[in-house]
Structure formats: structure tokens, C-alpha cells
Amino acid sequence: MIKVIKIGGNVIDNTTALEAFQRDFACMEGSKILIHGGGKIATQISQKLGIETVMVGGRRVTDRPTLDVVTMVYAGLINKNVVAALQSHGCNAIGLSGADAGSITSHKRINKDIDYGYVGDVDRVDAAAIKKLTDAGFTPVFCAITHDGNGTLLNTNADTVASSVACGVASLEDVELIFCFEKDGVLSCPDDDTSVIPHIDTAVYASLKESGVISGGMLPKMENAFAALKAGVKKVIITSPAYITDQNAPHTEIVL
Amino acid sequence: MIKVIKIGGNVIDNTTALEAFQRDFACMEGSKILIHGGGKIATQISQKLGIETVMVGGRRVTDRPTLDVVTMVYAGLINKNVVAALQSHGCNAIGLSGADAGSITSHKRINKDIDYGYVGDVDRVDAAAIKKLTDAGFTPVFCAITHDGNGTLLNTNADTVASSVACGVASLEDVELIFCFEKDGVLSCPDDDTSVIPHIDTAVYASLKESGVISGGMLPKMENAFAALKAGVKKVIITSPAYITDQNAPHTEIVL
Fold it and tell me: How large is the ipTM?
């Protein structure tokens, strides 16, 4: 069993939370892969460089200067600092973009209404390449930058990178996919952090979507979760980073 | 035989030269490792971010904001674009800092006169880790960022990274180290680009240093070259990128 863990920008932006997570992740037994989001640093650096940040539906419109900034921040600043921290805790991390080892190939998003620029939708994960790294004892740490195979880097949604990597690796061995975010799981009452729904299957999801309990940014996360299960991922969990060390901590398990 | 190739900032800064090099490097037969310098982009980004660049004796004084910039630019922007370009030419590149796979550990430079800040001098190369990657069919592409093993990244001279990697790998297999720079080799007349000295041994080096023919930035390059030979590297060449495709091109071979 290999665990694929995704942490979001909220962990990256919070030094205390990030340091705790890095220690806990480093101590996890067995094969594991980390995918990290970007957080607010790219927006701050863009501002300082005088590059306007344009968001449409929660997605960053990525023109060429913005692509350079996210490549610098996600693949450079964040990825290498996370790798150095994991190494200091005894975890043999190796930081990757999707270009590295040809691991994740994507295509520039085609949308008739909006030009998202250098935003990539994943086509292919080279699971054998990733497995060579884990078999060699390395822990892959992915940022959410991929490539098109023709020399162009593409900014890619980190949840999608996580589920794509999980689906790819699932063709070679059993995979558990864990999305860590700022809540303990999917909540039945958005204002009550203790209202974690323990299990969501497709029928429950349909009714929660209908009633508006699940909305906004949780919708693509849920879609990624179901897609992963359908592609053969054994277990998908939505939870907080606390789950990494305590699997009795509150969490939502997604089931088909 | 594994070839360790170092390209300097002058190649990184020249789009045409960089594209030609990437095509040529991708086509090279056999195991190979690339080490790239940084070029002027970090200085330009620092300026835009309002961070003062301080150089002492050709070395960048690296305070915390400058470390963040060089990490972004060297390990992110440059490294990932080089990797994506090599992948597009069929070379299975994997971009690395010294933190990745714990490959290069260094310590913060101690100097009684100048505080260089986050500048690292190399202590140890994990040749076995690098060999795992080349044996798996990957081509490591190193930027000149290393780590101290305690979670801190360090800005490191790219020539030193190249010779350290070459020396480390030489303990496991035969290595040829090729420093590519803007001239065809070491020149006997600095103003005459055709005056390439074909061979330099320690005696010739001593006399060229004494007469001032070799000076400035060439001195540490020569020291790195001799150190590599003494550590078991089979062949050390100082040349232009043209040598990659044509080993009859003008070049200087360093010999003990």
C-alpha cells in the first residue's frame, strides 16, 4: 500500500502547521507520495513584481509572467524548502514537477469562453517512473506544475495532480489517497466544524450536492475523489493533517 | 563512463545558445549529468523585488531574501524549464537541488572577514543516490542549491557542485567532467579567442598563474579541475558547448 497525501495552500501558508505536518509526514511508515498546493506566496510575489493576479472560478489565469512566478514559487521556493525539511527529519524526499522524470503530462486547457493561459489538464501519469523512485527508497514530493511534453510547463490544480498520481500508481499497487485541508472532513453543517460526515457514497453525494451542503471548492475535490475510486484507488479520505498521525481522528471516507 | 557537464550563466542567459545546448545535450549517448549555473535572472528578479545584490569577490552574498530568490530562480524557473526542454528532446531529465534525494550536503561558509550568509561549501555527495537515478534511466539536472541536512538550503558555486558531483560519482564509475563556458578553452592570450592551450598540467598551471595568464574566475575553475582529477575523475575538459557534439572542437584538457 502506498499513501498519496495532498496538502493545500492553507498548510503551506501557516509555518507552524507546515512544520508539524512535515515532522508527521516524515515519520509515516511505508511508501508515500506528497503533493503540495501553492498558497498565497505566488500572489504576494506577483504583486511585488507588478504582475496582476486574475482568478476565474477559483482558478488562476496563468499568462506567461504568472507561469514564471508559479514555477519559481511552487517548484522552487516551496518544493525545495519542503524537501529540505523532510530530509532533516530523515525522510529521503525528492522534489518533482510533472516535467521531472516525465512523470505528469498535461495539455493546455481548452475553454471556449475563457483563456486560462498556461493551465494544464492532466493527460498521463508515468506511474512506472514514479514507482522507480519509490522502489529506490525515495519519497516523491510533487508541486502542481506539469508539462506538455513539448517543452512548456503548465500550472495545474493540486487536487487534480494528487488524484491523477494516485490513479496512475493504482495501476501498479494498492493506493490510499488522503486530501488534507483546513477542516476535519466534509461537514453536514458548514458552520459546525464537528459535523463531519463519516462516509459519503455517490447517492449521499448527489443529495448533499442537491441540498447545497456540498458546494464551491468542495465539488471538484469530491469529483476527484470519486474519479480516483473508479480508477482503482482503494481508499479516499478527506480530512485534516491530524489524520496523518491518528487514523481515529475525524475524517470523511469517500466510497462508491 | 558517465559525463558530467557544467554550463554557466552565459548559456542560461542566451536563449539561442541555451536551446542549441539543450538539443545537443539531449542527443548525447550514454549516462550523463548536467549542472547549470544561474545567470543574471536572479539579479533582475532581486532588483524588481527591491532586494539589494551584494557581490564580494565574484560571490553573491546571500541573505535570507536573496536565498529565497536564488531558490526560486535556480531550482524553480531555470531548472524546470531546462528539464521540460530536455524532456521534449527525448532526454529523461530529472531536476534536482542538493536537498533532493539528499544528494549534496554542504555547510554554511565560515569566513572570519566576510559573512557570506546562506552560501554553502560542499561536504558530501551521496553518489549512491545519484547512481540510483542514472541506473533507472534518468538524467540528473542539478541547480547550484544544496542543503545542510538540517532543513536549510544553501547557495553554492556551480563549478564546485559540478566537480563535487564528478568526484562523488567517480567512486562508483569512470567520470569525464566537462566545464562549458563562453570561450573555447583556457587562452594563452586573453584577447585571442583562438589561443586555446590544449593541455595544462600542474607545472604549466603554476607558470601560467605566476605570469598572470590565468587569473580571476579561471583560478577556482582550475582548482576544481585539479581537485577532480586528484579525486579520481578520469578526464577534465574546459571548453565551449560546441565540444558536446564535436570532440575535435578546440578545448583544454587538464592533466595532473
Answer: 0.96
